[in-house]
C-alpha cells in the first residue's frame, strides 16, 4: 500500500506552497495535465467521431465513478456543471407543488443553493436553526448540507431523512463538503437526491458537478430543466419531448467535456486510497490543528467532537482577514469566512509539519503585527 505522504509527488503545488485550502480548491493532481492534453488530442485527431467514442456518454460514465465514491449504484449519478444546476434540475421535477410548497433548510445553507429555491415564487422557504422541527406535512423538499460549509460541522442526516420521509418530503443532500474526505453512503442514508461538485476534496477542478437520484425515483420524475441529452432518442431530433430511461433523463444539453476529462485523476486517487483511510488521516490531523490552536490560545470555531467534525478546522484570531492575507504572502494557502475565522483544510497529502508551520506562522504574525499592513484590505478567495 502506498504511504499517504508518497502521494505528495502527485501534486505539483505542494513543492512551493503549504496547501491547506482543500475545502475550497483541492490541489491539482499532476495527471490532470496529461488528461487535458488527451482531450485536446482526441478533438484534434478524432474530430466529430469523438462524440460516439465516449464524449456523449461522459456525464454518465464519469457519474458512475462518483457513484462508487458516494455509495450509489451504477446508473444513478449524472454530471452537470455545478451544484446550482443540479439543484435546479431536482426542483424542476416539482412543478405544481400545491399545498405542499415548503422548502426547509438550515440557516447556514450555501448561498448558491438557497438562491435556487428562493427564486421560485410559489414556494415558502424556511431557513432555520432547527431543521427537524421545521419539517412538517407542508414540506416538499429539504435541501441540506452533509457538512456545513462555514463551520465544517457534520449534520445528523439520518434524523433529517427519517423526519422528512415520515411526512412525505424529499431530502436533497449537498455533499460538496464531505465527498472525498468524510465517508458518505447515499444508499445507506436513504436520501432522495444528493449533489456535489469536484472543486474541493475530490481534487477534480471546476465544471464537474454531480447529481444522484435514488433508483426508485428516477423513472417517476420528469425534470422541467432539460435538454436533448435527456431525450429518449436525441439523434432523431424529434420535436416533442420524450424522456430517456434511466438517469439520462436528468441531463440537459451538450456536456462539459473538458471538465469531465480533468476531474477523473482526482477521483482515481480518492478511489485508490479509499475515503475511510482519508478520514482517519483527516481526524488525526484536524485534532493536531485543534490541539495546536488551543496551545497557542487561538479560538477554535469549528466542532471539536470527532463525530461532528468535517475536514476543516476554523481558527479565530483578532483581525483574521489581515492575518490570512499575510499567510498568503508567505505561501501558506488557506481562506477565511466572515464571522468564522481562518479555515485550514488539510488533505491526505499534507504533512504534520505543515500544520505546525501554519500555526507557528499565525502566532508569529499576531505577535509581531506583521498583518497590520493588510488591515482594511478585503480578500475574496
Ligand atoms: C456546501 C456547498 N455547496 C455548494 C457549493 C458550490 O455551489 P456551485 O457548484 O453551484 O458553485 C459549495 C462551495 O463552493 C459548497 O461548499
In spatial order, strands of the major sheet run 2-8-7-6-5-3-4
Helix content: 25-40%
Q: Round the Cα radius of gyration to an integer and report it.
A: 22 Å
Mean pLDDT: 97
Tertiary shape: globular
Report the end-to-end length measured between terminal Cα atoms.
36 Å
Secondary-structure topology with pairs:
Layout: E1 18-19, H1 31-46, H2 49-55, H3 58-70, E2 77-80, H4 83-91, E3 102-106, H5 111-118, E4 124-128, H6 131-134, E5 139-145, H7 157-166, E6 170-174, H8 186-189, E7 193-196, E8 209-213, H9 215-218, H10 257-262, H11 264-273, H12 275-296, E9 299-300, E10 313-316, H13 320-329, E11 332-333, E12 335-337, E13 341-344, H14 352-368
Parallel strand pairs: 1-11, 3-4, 3-5, 5-6, 6-7
Antiparallel strand pairs: 2-8, 7-8, 9-10, 10-13, 12-13
Helix pairs in contact: 3-11, 4-5, 12-14, 13-14
Bound molecules: pyridoxal-5'-phosphate.
Keyword list:
four-stranded antiparallel sheet, binds pyridoxal-5'-phosphate, 13 strands, alpha/beta, globular
Written overview of the protein:
- With 381 residues, this protein is an alpha/beta fold.
- 37% of the residues lie in helices and 14% in strands.
- The strands form three sheets. It has a seven-stranded mixed beta sheet with strand order 2-8-7-6-5-3-4, with helices on both faces.
- A hairpin with a 3-residue loop joins strand 12 (335-337) and strand 13 (341-344).
- Helix 3 (58-70) packs parallel to helix 11 (264-273).
- It is globular.
- The protein starts with 17 loop residues before the first strand and ends in a 13-residue tail after the last helix.
- 46% of the residues are buried.
- The model has no long low-confidence stretch (mean pLDDT 97).
- Pyridoxal-5'-phosphate binds at residues 82-84, 110, 112-113, 145, 149, 174, 176-177, 197, 209.
Amino acid at each position: 500500500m502506498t504511504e499517504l505522504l508518497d502521494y505528495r509527488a502527485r501534486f505539483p503545488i505542494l513543492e512551493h506552497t503549504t496547501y491547506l485550502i482543500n475545502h475550497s480548491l483541492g490541489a491539482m493532481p499532476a495527471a490532470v495535465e496529461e488528461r487535458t492534453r488527451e482531450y485536446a488530442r482526441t478533438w484534434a485527431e478524432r474530430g466529430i467521431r469523438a462524440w460516439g467514442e465516449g464524449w456523449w456518454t461522459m456525464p454518465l460514465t464519469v457519474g458512475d465513478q462518483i457513484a462508487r465514491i458516494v455509495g450509489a449504484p451504477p446508473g444513478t449519478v449524472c454530471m452537470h456543471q455545478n451544484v446550482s444546476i443540479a439543484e435546479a434540475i431536482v426542483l424542476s421535477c416539482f412543478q405544481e407543488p400545491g399545498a405542499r410548497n415548503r422548502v426547509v433548510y438550515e440557516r447556514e445553507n450555501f448561498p448558491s443553493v438557497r438562491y435556487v429555491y428562493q427564486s421560485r415564487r410559489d414556494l415558502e422557504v424556511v431557513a432555520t436553526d432547527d431543521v427537524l422541527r421545521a419539517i412538517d406535512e407542508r414540506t416538499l423538499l429539504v435541501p441540506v448540507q452533509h457538512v456545513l460549509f462555514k463551520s465544517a460541522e457534520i449534520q445528523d442526516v439520518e434524523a433529517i431523512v427519517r423526519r422528512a420521509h415520515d411526512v412525505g418530503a424529499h431530502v436533497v443532500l449537498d455533499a460538496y463538503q464531505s465527498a472525498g474526505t468524510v465517508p458518505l453512503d447515499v444508499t445507506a442514508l436513504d436520501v432522495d437526491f444528493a449533489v456535489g461538485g469536484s472543486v474541493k476534496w475530490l481534487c477534480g477542478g471546476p465544471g464537474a458537478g454531480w447529481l444522484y437520484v435514488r433508483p426508485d425515483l428516477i423513472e417517476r420524475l420528469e425534470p422541467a430543466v432539460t435538454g436533448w441529452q435527456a431525450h429518449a432518442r436525441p439523434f432523431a431530433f424529434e420535436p416533442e419531448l420524450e424522456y430517456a430511461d434511466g438517469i439520462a433523463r436528468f441531463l440537459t444539453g451538450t456536456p462539459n467535456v473538458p471538465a469531465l476529462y480533468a476531474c477523473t485523476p482526482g477521483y482515481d486517487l480518492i478511489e485508490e486510497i479509499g475515503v475511510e483511510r482519508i478520514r482517519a488521516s483527516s481526524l488525526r490531523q484536524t485534532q493536531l490543528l485543534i490541539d495546536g490552536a488551543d496551545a497557542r490560545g487561538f479560538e477554535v470555531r469549528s466542532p471539536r467532537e470527532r463525530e461532528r467534525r468535517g475536514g476543516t478546522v476554523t481558527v479565530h484570531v483578532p483581525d483574521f482577514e489581515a492575518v490570512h492575507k499575510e499567510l498568503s504572502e508567505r505561501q501558506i494557502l488557506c481562506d477565511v469566512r466572515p464571522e468564522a475565522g481562518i479555515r485550514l483544510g488539510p488533505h491526505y497529502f499534507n504533512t504534520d509539519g505543515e500544520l505546525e508551520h501554519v500555526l507557528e506562522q499565525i502566532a508569529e504574525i499576531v505577535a509581531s503585527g506583521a498583518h497590520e499592513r493588510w488591515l482594511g484590505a478585503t480578500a475574496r478567495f
